[in-house]
Write a structure and sequence with these properties.
- Chains A, B: Its EC number is 1.1.3.15.
- Chains A, B: Its cofactor is FAD.
- Chains A, B: This is FAD/FMN-dependent dehydrogenase.
- 2 copies of one chain form a homodimer.
- The first copy, chain A, has helices at about 5-15, 25-30, 50-65, 115-125, 145-150, 155-160, 195-200, 230-235, 240-245, 255-265, 285-305, 315-325, 330, 350-365, 390-410, 430, 435-450, and strands at about 20-25, 45, 70, 90, 100-105, 110, 130, 165-170, 180, 205-215, 215, 220-230, 250-255, 275-285, 305-310, 340-345, 370-375, 380-385.
- By secondary structure, the first copy, chain A, is of the alpha+beta class.
- In chain A, the strands form 4 sheets. The first copy, chain A, has a 7-stranded antiparallel beta sheet, sandwiched between helices. A 5-stranded antiparallel beta sheet of chain A has the order 5-6-10-8-9. Chain A has a 4-stranded mixed beta sheet with strand order 1-2-4-3.
- In chain A, a hairpin with a 4-residue loop joins strand 5 (about 100-105) and strand 6.
- At the A-B interface, strand 9, helix 7, strand 11, helix 9 and helix 11 of A face strand 9, helix 7, strand 11, helix 9 and helix 11 of B.
């Protein structure tokens, strides 16, 4: 973006947040111009407000000057939600990083948007409480970004996703008003549910300046059981068996044969060759109950054709079982410099069909694919791997992605489970949503952001 | 409302839904003009569509003719959400009453809006599944109404409220477009979360024509423990003790001393005079686990000062314990012909303060008050009782309601936990929400319903 920011704007921003908190030089701008995808879009400048009032003043100014604003949390997204593809201002919430309150009796926490997910998890666990949402990026992601993207993670089968833990929000609107949605209680039906609307709105409708989050009592214990399967169908067929046993695991993670080969080749886990699928099932709760449930899981896995079944007895064994899953990201790097990681989702019984179709697609386009993810909630990460410098391979990989989206939709699912749309999936939005549905969303966007200054270029393929 | 509906409109409606499904005569209109409050507002006519296409055609016509439309489910609300206070059309969903699918493996149901909550509960329980939301009106309420009002109930402490079970919706917009929000999976971050926005929107933003609902495995067992307390503070102080024991009851119901006196006087339950509060604590889950948890609950209640503690051992004893709670509605009728039932909510640790303040308010206005509700989630039903023909008493009772709302807000809560705003609480909306927050909601309303034809006169004190 070639826009030159008027001197006046810089002066006024310095008045609002202080000179030290406005970044204008190229070198220091770069870290604010990319996310986990690594594609760089330089902002014209970066502001680092400390208070809600500062955020409101920035938005009023930006709206007056028609300056694009992109809010930024941890900057670890996979679809570019925090990246300023139209230049303008990046508003980083990194200085708004206080945990204001942890209320044990009433089971909530009040936090600023720049608190890291992991930091909140540790702080509440120290009090015997539990904040369940755990996106893979939890060590670096900010709560504000988690809410804006409605982040998921492995525990959603039992605990739901981020939006299920947001009780209240303070939001600065695109026109610079400060509004409050929800409150401190699970029950609250006063006016439209703006919390519901803002969760997952990818920073297009407002900037989150405070969040009130629902907490749970911390489960006493966790336990993991691992099993290998000769087919993906067998592995997935055991999931409804848990329902029959009235059992809801905290997580059911799955890895396909390519994932297993990858970690085996890279780290010699010694997983037998006949393993075409691997399941990791975690249960949590009261100590005795977890013991009982882990045995039940073990039995169900065996009866469903699982072999080499291992039930962790100690924290050390627990870590070992998850090692395979954690090694995966590194292990697949050897298959290509470019990873197209797509978080499709289907009703969980359709996972085997999805994976079969993805394999066919990969074969047709001669692209290596690795599938793994959350078998409990139907969310599979389909990773097409190729050489990023090989333009022909990249083109083929992108075609494979489009066909994967089509397959997920045909199977009753959709194109994004937890990464959002951002700019990378905006061209595919029409595959998933009808024209009147998109138009309804845009009407809401225009109603709240008449000048379309907040996070332009995201979600929709045009900003009108 | 004196509006005379043009002949042409009636003719066109008859073409859309068939003559048999348009009601124009006064006598048959009356049942569609009131809800649980019993205040009558006659509609000009009632239409009973069977399909989404019919609903869309009706809305297109209504939008063209600027005809007010009020969607109606079971008609059992407490704030008038389904009542046509500006006349026009009532669109009853009673013929859209099919359960289209119950998917065991993928844990969801697809239903039309006119399915009764109880009917759905029974249908899924027969399959070993569980739909947790259970508003008090569940035998008559419709799923569509539950979603529109984001209905609660006693189980919200463990299971959340209706919105936590809505995966997907088909909606007809005020301008007659058919849109789809969400889908069949818990994880879905494709575009704005219109499901989140529609839940609790009280029929102002669209008409729900289909819902995809999340189900859980049916818990094997339930168990209730009852205890009496000498003070409300003692009773409420045991709630955080459950958190310390990492225990989440399915329900914690509370009755204050006036509630206890009322049922005792009416039905001779023999509850001792020193009981100033009664708690009913229900746990559910696996059979062994429930047994263990019920004992833990019993111990915590005793240690917290509870007396006359009873733990149900059989289904019969279970029923007996809940008898007291169920008798309440009938028992309090003798205290007045008019019941102003207000569902305020506070962070649960503030319940004792709320009840103390409500008692002071009642004393000051010389109005009898009965408080009971959901101690687990802070939602107390404050019932001011008076003679409906005594205008002076009614005036005093209404003042008491306003002060109760102020007290709930001061204590960090809000004016409606599960009944919604409708027309009865619209005059109080500004007590709970700031002007910019209300204006943001209205912008959304205008964006989706430019002619403000859908459920006019509700939520906001003016329709602009």
């Amino acid at each position: 973006m070639e826009r030159a920011i008027e001197k006046e704007i810089i002066t006024r921003l310095c008045e609002i947040v202080g000179e030290d908190h406005v970044i204008t030089e190229g070198e220091r701008l770069a870290p604010y111009g990319q996310d986990a995808l690594g594609e760089l879009f330089l902002p014209d400048l970066v502001v680092l407000p400390r208070t809600t009032e500062e955020v409101a003043a920035i938005m009023k100014l930006a709206n007056e000057k028609l300056l694009p604003v992109t809010a930024r949390g941890g900057g670890v997204g996979y679809t570019g939600g925090a990246v300023p593809i139209k230049g303008g201002l990046v508003l980083s919430t990194e200085r708004m990083n206080r945990i204001k309150e942890i209320n044990f009796d009433d089971l909530y926490a009040v936090v600023e948007p720049g608190v890291r997910t992991y930091e909140l998890q540790c702080a509440v666990e120290a009090r015997g409480l539990f904040y369940p949402p755990d996106p893979a990026s939890f060590r670096e992601s900010f709560i504000g970004g988690n809410i804006a993207e409605n982040a998921g993670g492995p525990r959603s089968i039992k605990y739901g996703v981020t939006k299920h833990y947001v009780l209240g929000l303070e939001i600065v609107t695109p026109t610079g008003e400060v509004i409050r949605a929800g409150g401190r209680t699970t029950k609250n039906v006063v006016g439209f549910d703006l919390v519901g609307l803002i969760c997952g709105s990818e920073g297009l409708l407002g900037i989150i300046t405070e969040a009130i989050l629902r907490l749970l009592p911390l489960p006493e214990a966790r336990r993991t059981v691992r099993a290998l399967f000769r087919t993906m169908r067998e592995a997935c067929a055991c999931v409804p068996q848990f329902v029959r046993a009235a059992l809801v695991p905290a997580a059911i993670e799955v890895m396909d044969r390519h994932s297993i080969r990858a970690v085996n080749d890279a780290f010699s886990f010694g997983i037998p060759d006949e393993a075409e699928a691997l399941l990791l099932v975690e249960v949590d709760g009261n100590r005795d109950e977890v013991e009982r449930e882990a045995r039940m899981v073990e039995r169900i896995l065996r009866e469903s054709g699982g072999f080499d079944v291992r039930r962790a007895e100690t924290a050390e064994e627990e870590r070992e079982l998850w090692e395979v899953r954690r090694a995966l990201s590194d292990a697949i790097k050897r298959y290509g410099t470019l990873k197209l990681n797509n978080d499709v989702v289907v009703p969980r019984s359709r996972i085997p069909e999805l994976i079969e179709r993805v394999e066919q697609i990969a074969q047709r386009y001669e692209i290596f694919v690795v599938n793994f993810g959350h078998a409990g909630d139907g969310n599979i990460h389909v990773n097409f791997m190729c050489d990023g410098d090989d333009r022909e391979a990249v083109r083929r990989a992108r075609e494979a992605v489009r066909e994967t989206f089509a397959a997920a939709l045909e199977l009753g699912g959709t194109i994004s489970a937890e990464h959002g749309i951002g700019y990378t999936k905006a061209p595919y939005l029409r595959m998933a949503l009808s024209e009147p549905t998109i138009e309804t969303m845009k009407r809401i966007k225009r109603a709240l952001d008449p000048n379309w200054i907040l996070n332009p270029g995201k979600m929709f393929s045009d900003d009108r």
